[in-house]
Specification:
This protein is mainly beta. It has helices at 23-29, 34-46, 152-155; strands at 6-10, 13-17, 62-63, 66-73, 79-81, 87-97, 108-117, 122-126, 133-136, 141-150, 163-172, 189-193, 198-203, 205-212, 221-232, 237-240, 245-252, 259-265, 271-277, 282-288, 297-298, 302-304. It has two domains: 6-202, Immunoglobulin-like (Sandwich); 205-304, SOR catalytic domain (Immunoglobulin-like). Strands 3, 5, 7, 8, 11, 12 and 13 form a seven-stranded mixed beta sheet that branches. Strands 17, 18, 20, 21 and 22 form a five-stranded antiparallel beta sheet that branches. Strands 4-6-10-9 form a four-stranded antiparallel beta sheet.
Length: 307
C-alpha cells in the first residue's frame, strides 16, 4: 500500500499520525499500514496504551456511530494479477451513520481494504493508493467509491492466490493533534468492521496452441502443441501449470462454433501435445476451464489448410 496513515513513536508514546505518506516515500520508509493505526486505537480503548515520558495519554476513544453496508470488491469477480503490471479494481460501499457524523469531513479518515488470514494479524493486506471518495446521499448515508491497487511484484506471493476478506475503518480525528506528547483520546472516535465481504485473488494464466504441419494433406496426422502457464508471484516469472485438463477444440473454416475434440492433460512443465487426423480446413484451439487459484484461458485459434 503506497498512501496511508501511519503509526509513529513520539517520545515513547504510540500515537496516530494522520499525515498521508507519498507513494515514493512510503515504499522505503518503513511506514506502517492501517492495522497499526487500529491497534493503537484499540490499545487506547482498552486502557493498555503505554507511555514512558513526562506526560501521559488520557481518555479512551469513543465508539463512532457508523457502519459499513453493501461492500463490493471488483464487482464480486476474482481479482486476476500477472507478474508485474499494476492491477486496480473498484471498491464500492455505503456508510450509514448518526446525524452528527460526517464521513466527508477533512478530519475524518475511512477506508476499505482486503486482508488474508486473521484481521488482527493478517498474512497480507491490500488497499488503495488513495482514500475512497464519499458523498452524502442523505443526512445519515454516504456512498463511497475507492480502489484496491496491487503491484504484484512487490505485494504478492503465490500463497495469496486464495480467498480474502474485506474490512473497513472510520476514524474521526476531531482536529486532535495526534502527534502530540499527550493525547486526549476521548475526543477521537473510531469504528472498524471485519469480514464485510469476500474477494478472491488469482494468478493470471496464458495458453498457446500450434497445429502442424501447415498445410496438411487430408487424412494425414496433425500434431497440436501448446503450453499452459501462469504467473508465479514468488519469482516474478511465468511457469508451466502441470497436470491440468485442457480441451482441444476445432471449428470449420466457415463456422462460428467450436466443438471439443478431446481433453489433454498438461505435462509437468505445462506443455500440451496430441494428434488428430486432418479432415477439413479450420481452426484448432486449446481451452482451459480454470481452477480456484487460476482463471480460465483460451488460446487464439490456429488455422490449418487441408489440401
Amino acid at each position: 500500500m503506497r498512501i496511508r496513515a501511519t503509526v509513529v513513536a513520539v517520545t515513547g508514546a504510540v500515537a496516530l499520525s494522520a499525515f498521508v505518506v507519498p507513494a515514493a516515500q512510503a515504499a522505503g520508509s518503513g511506514a506502517h499500514h492501517p492495522l497499526d493505526t487500529l491497534k493503537a486505537l484499540r490499545a487506547a480503548a482498552s486502557g493498555k496504551s503505554t507511555f514512558t515520558g513526562a506526560t501521559a495519554d488520557s481518555g479512551t476513544p469513543y465508539a463512532l456511530d457508523a457502519k459499513f453496508t453493501g461492500v463490493s470488491v471488483n464487482n464480486g469477480k476474482p481479482i486476476v494479477a500477472g507478474t508485474s503490471a499494476r492491477v486496480s479494481v473498484p471498491v464500492t460501499f455505503k456508510v450509514t451513520h448518526g446525524a452528527g457524523v460526517d464521513v466527508t469531513a477533512g478530519d475524518t479518515e475511512l477506508d476499505v481494504f482486503i486482508y488474508r488470514g486473521s484481521f488482527d494479524e493478517p498474512a497480507n493486506f491490500l488497499g488503495g493508493d488513495d482514500y475512497p471518495a464519499c458523498s452524502n446521499t442523505s443526512a445519515t448515508v454516504a456512498t463511497c467509491r475507492g480502489t484496491i491497487d496491487i503491484l504484484p511484484g512487490e505485494e504478492l506471493e503465490n500463497a495469496d492466490a486464495t480467498g480474502w476478506k474485506a474490512a473497513g475503518y472510520i476514524i474521526d480525528v476531531n482536529d486532535v493533534d495526534l502527534s502530540a506528547d499527550d493525547i486526549d483520546y476521548s475526543k477521537v472516535g473510531f469504528t472498524e468492521s471485519a469480514s464485510l465481504t469476500t474477494a478472491k485473488l488469482q494468478r493470471l494464466s496464458k495458453l498457446t496452441v500450434n497445429a502442424a504441419p501447415e498445410p496438411v494433406k487430408k487424412g494425414k496426422t496433425l500434431t497440436v502443441t501448446g503450453k499452459l502457464s501462469r504467473a508465479n508471484w514468488d519469482n516474478g516469472a511465468y511457469a508451466g501449470y502441470s497436470t491440468q485438463p485442457v480441451k482441444l477444440q476445432f471449428r470449420k473454416k466457415n463456422s462460428s462454433t467450436y466443438t471439443t475434440v478431446k481433453t489433454v492433460k498438461t505435462s509437468s512443465t505445462g506443455s500440451l501435445k496430441t494428434t488428430v487426423k486432418a479432415s477439413v480446413d479450420g481452426y484448432y484451439r486449446y481451452v482451459f476451464a480454470g481452477t480456484s487459484t487460476t482463471p480460465a484461458a483460451t488460446a487464439a485459434g490456429d488455422f490449418v489448410d487441408v489440401k
